[in-house]
Every structure is written in C-alpha cells, then in structure tokens.
C-alpha cells in the first residue's frame, strides 16, 4: 500500500558515506547507478533525476510510508564497462535497491552489443549476490548502426531482466514524444540530455516502477523475518 504524504520521510544523499545524513530507522536505500541521464548533467541539483524522483515519491507516496534515501552514484560519461570498474566503490553505501541505467554511452560509441550485455550481466550478477533489488532501465537503439546492431542491442535489457527477475523500464526516454522534432521542448541545447521538463516526464513515467522496487525490498525484509 502506498502511504499518505504525512508518513513519508524522503532523503536525498550524496554517494559518499561521510556526506550522508544519519540513517533513519527502516529506511530503504535506493542507489542510482547510471550515467549523465541520472547524474543530472547540465541541470541544477533540484532539477536532476535524483531530486525530481525524491519529490515525486514525496507527492505520490512510498510503500507503507517507508523513508527512502536516494544515493546518486551515477557518473556522467560512464559506459557499462566503467560501471563494472566502479561497482565496488558504489556498493560501499550498502544500497537495498539499485536503479541501473547504463548503456547509453555504449550506444553512442557503437560498442559491440555483446560487450554491453556482458558488462550489464556482471553488474546484475553482483547485485543478485548482494541481494540488491534492481530496476533495469534500458535505451532503445535506432537504425544508426544498421538493423542487426539495433536488434542485438534492443534485446539486451528485456532478456537480462528476465534472466535475473528484475523490474524493467524498457526505454529511459519512453515518456518523451517519439518524433525527434517533438522532443525538442524536453531536451537541453545539445539535443541529447533531457532538460528539467524532460526529466519531469521521465520521472512521472518511471515513478511507479521505483515504488514497486521499494515494495520488493520490503517484501524481502518481511521474508527474512519469517525465516
């Protein structure tokens, strides 16, 4: 059940433990592990994905009113390979859940989809070993590198989500208009990164899945108590 607003205590923290506020009893720690899309590239802190998701959860509620701490461990420019390299550092914050949003820079560079898949598989396997619930956020390839590349890349996220039983957001940009010309009002001047309005649409679309992610953590805790 999603709690009423008065029962929610939402916290936004930096990924460095020394910079975080004191933990709240029973809080769920949700780590953003991605690239510039979730790091907040080109945006004021309050307009970035982390802050806007915090606000969305405050407005729409969290399961059982549980306090949520969002840890932003996303790094602009990160590839899936970079994610593998910094995973140990990020997991030092002991997250309960992870929003895994990587692959966009692989796509921009034309990285072999098999490499992208292998790197994401490594991260997901580690999350599984650490009993971290995951929301896997995908990107959708167009025809820039041909139909074979597109098909191979676009198969990565749904197939890995099925393999590991994670929640899935098929396309980070799924809430934005499909036609490039119609996306302009929601993008920064570089034509790639969402502006504040674009992030708001992304967050509204992804928010229910983040609520479901938090719910999974609470279910895990309840099961652990029973056992």
What's this model, at a glance?
Keywords: Signal. The protein has 227 residues and is of the alpha/beta class.
Q: Which SSEs are present, and which pair or pack?
A:
Layout: E1 10-13, E2 28-34, H1 36-39, H2 49-60, E3 68-72, H3 80-85, H4 87-91, E4 97-101, H5 104-109, H6 113-129, E5 133-137, H7 147-164, E6 167-169, H8 180-183, H9 196-226
Parallel strand pairs: 1-3, 2-3, 2-4, 4-5, 5-6
Keywords: Signal
GO molecular function, one term: phosphatidylcholine lysophospholipase activity
Signal peptide: 1-20
Structure description:
There is one protein chain. The protein is of the alpha/beta class. It has a single domain, classed as 3-Layer(aba) Sandwich (Rossmann fold). 45% of the residues lie in helices and 13% in strands. It has nine helices and six strands; from the N terminus they run E-E-H-H-E-H-H-E-H-H-E-H-E-H-H. It has helices at residues 36-39, 49-60, 80-85, 87-91, 104-109, 113-129, 147-164, 180-183, 196-226; strands at 10-13, 28-34, 68-72, 97-101, 133-137, 167-169. It has a six-stranded parallel sheet, with helices on both faces. Strand 5 (133-137), helix 7 and strand 6 (167-169) form a beta-alpha-beta unit. Helix 2 (49-60) crosses helix 9 (196-226). It is globular and about 50 Å long. Mean pLDDT is 91; it is low at 3-9 and 14-20.
CATH architecture field: 3-Layer(aba) Sandwich
Provide the number of structural domains.
1
Number of strands: 6
Q: Identify the CATH homologous superfamily.
A: SGNH hydrolase
Rg over CA atoms: 17 Å
Q: Kindly state the mean pLDDT as a whole number? A: 91
CATH topology: Rossmann fold
Q: Output the helix-strand order.
A: EEHHEHHEHHEHEHH
Portion of residues in beta strands equals 5-15%
The first-level CATH class is given as Alpha Beta
Distance between the ends: 23 Å
Unreliable segments of 5+ consecutive residues: 3-9, 14-20
Domain SGNH hydrolase-type esterase: 32-198
Keywords: Signal
Signal peptide: 1-20
Organism: Roseovarius nanhaiticus
């Amino acid at each position: 059940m999603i709690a009423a607003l008065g029962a929610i205590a939402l916290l936004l923290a930096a990924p460095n433990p020394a910079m975080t506020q004191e933990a709240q009893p029973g809080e769920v720690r949700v780590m953003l592990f991605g690239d510039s899309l979730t790091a907040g590239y080109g945006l004021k802190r309050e307009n970035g994905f982390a802050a806007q998701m915090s606000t969305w959860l405050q407005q729409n509620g969290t399961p059982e009113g549980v306090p949520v701490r969002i840890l932003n461990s996303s790094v602009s420019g990160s590839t899936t390979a970079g994610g593998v390299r910094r995973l140990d550092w990020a997991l030092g914050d002991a997250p309960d859940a992870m929003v895994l949003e990587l692959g966009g820079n692989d796509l921009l560079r034309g990285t072999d989809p098999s490499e992208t898949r292998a790197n994401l598989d490594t991260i997901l396997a580690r999350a599984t070993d650490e009993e971290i619930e995951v929301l896997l956020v995908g990107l959708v390839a167009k025809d820039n590198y041909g139909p074979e590349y597109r098909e191979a890349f676009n198969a990565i996220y749904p197939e890995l989500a099925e393999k590991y039983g994670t929640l899935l957001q098929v396309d980070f940009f799924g809430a934005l208009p499909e036609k490039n010309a119609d996306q302009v009002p929601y993008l920064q001047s570089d034509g790639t990164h969402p502006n504040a309005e674009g992030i708001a649409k992304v967050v509204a679309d992804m928010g229910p899945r983040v609520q479901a992610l938090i719910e999974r953590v609470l279910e895990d805790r309840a099961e652990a108590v029973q056992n």
